Each structure stands twice: as structure tokens, then as C-alpha cells.
Prior knowledge:
The protein has helices spanning about 15-25, 30-40, 45-50, 55-65, 70. The longest helix is centred in the first third of the chain and has 13 residues, at about 15-25. The protein has five helices and no strands. It has a domain at about 10-75: lambda repressor-like DNA-binding domains (434 Repressor (Amino-terminal Domain)). The protein is an all-alpha fold.
Amino acid sequence: MSITSSTVDIPKEPAIRRAWVVYQLRIRGLSFGSLARDSGVSRQAISNALLMPSSHLEEIIAEAIGLTAQELFPERFDTTGRRLHRTRSPERNTRANPDNVKTGEAA
């Protein structure tokens, strides 16, 4: 049995889309938790990507259900496929880089 998704079936309303995505993951034996573990992020981060733009997490979710991020979140892209909003980099690090931290020593 093959499971396929059609872009016609994707709900536009965020709350309904979230339930649809949960269902699509569940029928594939997946969950937000399993995507989070496999991606090294929190379950909440995966869940938040359905409400707030996050390019790398959108791609993870979309790929898990056999779609592209543009198909799953068309309102986040223009007609040429470019993102409408900037998103955070997946490599973003909020901690100071020890190699770049000033020690306070005089030069």
C-alpha cells in the first residue's frame, strides 16, 4: 500500500493543517517526537514550525509526509518559489563561541 499526499488535500487554516500533518505523520508511523529526535531538535520546535516560518524544520516535516515545504506551506512562498519571510538559520548558535570570546587581556 502506497501513501501519497495531494496538495489539494492540504488545509489552509493553521489549526486544521496541524491536525492534518499529525494525521499524515501518524499513518506513516511517525510523530513530532520522532522527527525531533531524528533531527536533533525539540518536539516543540517541530510543532512551532507549523505556525512560524522555519525553513529547515518545514523541510523536515514536509519531507516526512512526501511533500516539499512549498507545497505544505504555500503562503510562505511567492509564485517563483522564493520565501516571503526570512527564517532563522539552522546553524544558529546562541552561545558565545569560545574561540571568539575576549579574555580581557591587554594586547
